[in-house]
Amino acid sequence: MPTNTFFNLSEEKKNKILKAANKEFARVPLEQASIKNIVEDAEIARGSFYQYFEDKQDLFEYLMTLKIGNMQKNLFDMIERENGNIINIFINIYDHLIQVGKVRKNNKFFRQIFENVKTSDNLMLIKKDVTKNKIEQTLYELYSKNKDILNVKNEEEFKLVIEMLFAITRRRIVASFKCNDLDEARKDFLKEIEFLKNGIQK
Questions:
Q1: Cα 179 to the chain's mean position, in Å?
Q2: Within its chain, how far is the Cα of 28 from the centroid?
Q3: pLDDT higher at 146 or 132
Q4: How far is 54 from 68, CA to CA, in rounded Å?
Q5: Which of 9, 61, 118, 157 has its CA 20 to 30 Å from the CA of residue 165?
Q6: The pTM is what?
């Protein structure tokens, strides 16, 4: 979370910093993003950067919150709304992120993110201050709600299901940014989900 020093800046200066960050995070994955490029583009001193943000991860998370809202809250709302049904939750995640990505100026930024995320935690955009225990507790609760409706034997198999759903969802989100017909893109996504649900062998 940015410091009060950042929030006390003029709107013009804050926007200049966020514009520079958006440009850098759209250029390369977070791990390769350069604070040097951001401060030079924003025309601020490197020392000033650390008066505003803890590190580039801190800036990235704030920018994501501005662009996408609180995905952590959205995720838990989805879980409650869908009564923990993991397949419907991922369909909701897809729909939510595609809606955000419809804003044309955001497309390059989001494509960069989804082409480079590595885990389902990244997809859900859970902030780093959420503890591992919280995530594990959520997975356990989801497993409890899904073990009677999915063909899984234990929590390890359930985690594999999540990884498969993540892989499909990530790939289809990236593909949607390259597709002019979002309705067709969603149909293809749902078709893959149906294959996963029903199996492909007769």
A1: 20
A2: 16
A3: 146
A4: 21
A5: 61
A6: 0.72
Of 117, 157, 116, give the one whose Cα is nearest residue 139: 157
CB 101 within 8 A of CB 26: no
Whole-number Å distance between alpha carbons of 55 and 31: 12
Check pLDDT > 90 for residue 67: no
Task: Please tell me the CATH superfamily of domain 4-67, with its number.
Answer: Homeodomain-like (1.10.10.60)
Residue 43, sorted as left (phi over 0), alpha (psi -120 to 50) or beta, turns out to be left
24 burial (CB, 10 Å; 0-12 / 13-18 / 19+) is buried
| Structure tokens belonging to residue 155 | 């929590």
Contacts by 10-16, CB closer than 8 A, 24 or more apart:
13/44, 16/42, 16/43
Separation CA 38–CA 21 (nearest Å):
6
Question: What does the pLDDT look like over 147-163, one tens digit per residue?
Answer: 888 888 898 898 888 88
SS3 199: coil
Domain ranges of the chain: 4-67, 69-198
Q: How does the average pLDDT of the chain come out, rounded?
A: 84
As a whole number, mean pLDDT of residues 111-117 equals 72
